[in-house]
Specification:
Blueprint lengths: L1 H10 L2 E5 L2 E4 H29 L7 H26 L8 H13 L2 H16 L7 E4 L2 E8 L3 E5 L5 E5 L1 H5 L3 E2 L7 E9 L5 H14 L10 E7 L4 E9 L6 H19 L19
Antiparallel strand pairs: 1-2, 3-4, 3-7, 4-5, 5-6, 8-10, 9-10
Helix pairs in contact: 2-3, 7-8
Length: about 280
């Protein structure tokens, strides 16, 4: 009994006082334990809502993630208030702490605050969403996670890049799949001046038609771009949705096939040509 009484007395020792509330060791442990449980449970609840409850509705994953994140933060705020009230903490006494934090936010946490507000804007306005293919600050990749502080982008090299949310509000962002995942690519092709443009067009359309990664609708087309210095320049325009995150692979496939068909049909690919005129100076 003496040991239990000593433990009880130890837990009831006042560590500090804030306003009219005394924070004992027991109060601090109570708050830390339940806040940890609150964060853990809300994370699990968010996953259940996004991946199970809303998944059956057919709602876009980006909308589900945004709703789950907002729902979680609301529950955390409500739970935060409940935990402090049940711990016997007078919330009005926390105004001093919040005032001090406000000064800290104003001076030392400007970037954190900016990223937090930007995160809220992203979640509500949804200029980007999960699985979007984007380009920002020279980074190309797929969005895999959006939090209130930062957004995680995975590049084609499987490298995760953590981008502060303020970048998406203050910088220009290219979203390759904002409306849908259909994207058009332009493939430049050059041939010799002695080739027939109509034949070249047929060959390029035939190569594009055989590639399974190219959409039939909208259909591919070929533009006669210009008369180059030593070549006729064409532009093969194709649409795809499967290669939006790896355009270099599709471009490589087409160039391999174009080179092969050109060789089979005897289509000449020109070399750059330069005319050099040498003037001799008469000797006196």
């Amino acid at each position: 009994m003496d040991i239990l009484q000593r433990i009880k007395d130890l837990l009831n020792i006042a560590v500090f006082e804030l306003g009219k509330t005394q924070f004992t060791l027991l109060t601090i442990i109570y708050i830390l334990v339940f806040l940890t449980l609150l964060i853990f449970v809300t994370a699990k609840l968010k996953k259940y809502i996004v991946n199970t409850l809303l998944a059956k509705s057919g709602i876009d994953i980006g909308i589900r993630e945004s709703f789950g994140a907002i729902f979680r933060y609301i529950i955390i705020v409500i739970g935060f208030i409940i935990v402090f009230q049940t711990a016997g903490v007078d919330l009005s006494s926390l105004t001093i702490l919040f005032g001090a934090l406000g000064i800290g936010v104003g001076f030392g946490l400007q970037n954190v605050t900016s990223n937090f507000v930007s995160g809220l804007i992203i979640l509500f306005e949804r200029p980007i969403k999960i699985r979007d293919r984007i380009e920002v600050a020279g980074i190309h990749g797929d969005v895999v996670d959006i939090s209130l502080r930062a957004t995680t982008i995975v590049t084609n090299d499987n490298i995760s890049v953590i981008v502060p949310n303020s970048e998406f509000i203050s910088s220009t962002v290219i979203n390759w799949s904002h409306m849908d995942r259909n994207v058009r690519f332009n493939i430049p092709v050059s041939v010799s001046y002695k080739e027939d443009p109509e034949s070249v067009k047929e060959i390029l359309l035939e190569v594009a038609d055989r590639n399974e990664g190219i959409l039939k609708h909208p259909s591919p087309d070929v533009l006669f771009d210009k008369y180059g210095d030593s070549s006729l320049d064409f532009n093969l325009r194709i649409w795809t949705r499967n290669y939006i995150n790896k355009p270099g692979v599709l471009r490589s496939q087409l160039y391999y096939e174009i080179f092969k068909v050109f060789r089979e049909k005897g289509v000449e690919i020109p070399y750059p040509q330069r005319d050099i005129h040498i003037k001799s100076k008469p000797v006196d």
